[in-house]
Amino acid sequence: MASVGEIAARIGVEEDDVAFLDAADPADRQALVEAIDAAGLARDRELLDAVDNALKFVPRPLRGRVLKLIGGGRG
Fold this sequence. Notes:
Elements: H1 4-11, H2 26-55, H3 63-70
Helix pairs in contact: 1-2
């Protein structure tokens, strides 16, 4: 089951900021971690899609350089 420290690390805050979650049921904390992970994956996918869509406005010969410049490399 997920600890308060694990939740804090996943969302990038201090453990004290989410210490109140220690009173939550362990299954609920685990569900929260899973929801945070799913949201992160969705955000990453949306970002990649946005970069791909933006690149459509860049002439094809320059797309590789632009992608490298903005740090949108795949891999």
